[in-house]
Write a structure and sequence with these properties.
mainly alpha, 0% strand
Length: 64
């Protein structure tokens, strides 16, 4: 039961982060290892900086 509860809490947290637009490093790693096995994935810090850069410093990516 503890394993199922932990998995449910992790799923809820993942959904909340997705709704808030927070970057999901684990999903990124999963995608990179499956789709691009020849590339070295970014570190967590690099990934976070890249996501923030894309979100706030790209002109035209926001409506106002």
């Amino acid at each position: 039961m503890t394993g199922r509860l932990s998995a449910a809490i992790a799923g809820i947290a993942r959904n909340i982060r997705a709704m808030l637009g927070a970057p999901d490093y684990e999903r990124y790693l999963s995608h990179e290892t499956q789709a691009h096995p020849d590339r070295q994935p970014m570190s967590r810090d690099q990934f976070t900086c890249d996501r923030l850069e894309n979100r706030y410093n790209k002109p035209g990516s926001r409506c106002c």
